[in-house]
């Protein structure tokens, strides 16, 4: 029994560290860093030319809104270029874009995946900075200026913008969970960046120095993450800039969000194998510490540790005498309560009853469930490289 109890507490502590402890530790480390190190200010009076790169597949419903948003960005008009690559689109996306003479469109009728579209587009880019974003995300007006300013630091090779979720149905399971997740994720990204480097960038909005671009494998699932992390592995910093943000509505429902999370989970497993150097503390100790703590633990540890913790807890309680209440009984009751709330959340969203308190635990469970499905899909090798955007709420 002692071995089971030790294993139970070790796993529980690691799960707590993955979700909460790492954030608290980062906060403390950043506070100490600020005490002993003065913040450097980098200034560059020149405004470099920038390309706003959108890889699109059947984005007809978003073209006009996206183009309008892009043209309103606060950056010198003669230095901001627009490139859309529309591989495989058959809904007329490229025809709508043809109306705009200042947008360069590369259309290929064959669908070969987002990473192939990015490879094709990067071959013609001549600006020193390229900003990637999605067709269905709108950018904050000052986002390009904020990104360019971050590149004034010569150590910065990649800039990660912030993703914000808005949703008219604020009490939906997808909206409540996804919004809360990204608020906490944004906090971690900010702390990561202030400590050393952000751990990867999200495709909704990120930028790189064009000279640092290297093609990634054509079957890459998380192209944005792989591209940015390899820049970090090569000794550059990924800077997080929350004032440069992309905003989009939440997934239409949990089913759509689950579809997206499964793909991310499959890509996470793939990325772990392909970014082995980022796990090597002898290559870059701080990067390895952040990568393992922020990503690997939540990708490959927590989803598989949680059911083991529950089973261990149940075995320990079963083999105890019920003479008085103890911590193991309380822990088991709390876990049972969590899963009961998850079931209620699932039931409420299925009959369209809105109750946020039940949706957040349901979303957390769904994320971990997606990790199991993503691992299975990766092992089977049936996750397509072609991206399929999750339906978003109105």
At the fourth CATH level, what is the homologous superfamily? Answer: Spore Coat Polysaccharide Biosynthesis Protein SpsA, Chain A
Bulk shape: globular
Q: What's the total helix number?
A: 11
| Sheet with most strands: strand arrangement | 3-2-1-4-7-6-8-5
How many distinct beta strands?
8
In percent, how much strand structure appears in the residues? 5-15%
Provide the number of structural domains: 1
Distance N terminus to C terminus? 53 Å
CATH class: Alpha Beta
Give a structural overview.
The N and C termini lie far apart (53 Å). The chain has a single domain, classed as Spore Coat Polysaccharide Biosynthesis Protein SpsA, Chain A (Alpha-Beta Complex), CATH 3.90.550. Strands 3-2-1-4-7-6-8-5 form an 8-stranded mixed β-sheet. The protein is built from 11 helices and 8 strands. By secondary structure, it is of the alpha/beta class. 52% of the residues lie in helices and 13% in strands.
Write the layout of secondary structure elements.
Elements: H1 2-36, E1 50-55, H2 63-71, E2 80-85, H3 93-97, E3 103-106, H4 114-122, E4 129-133, E5 138-139, H5 143-150, E6 156-166, H6 173-195, E7 205-209, H7 223-233, E8 237-249, H8 254-274, H9 285-318, H10 327-350, H11 356-380
Parallel strand pairs: 1-2, 1-4, 2-3, 6-8
Antiparallel strand pairs: 4-7, 5-8, 6-7
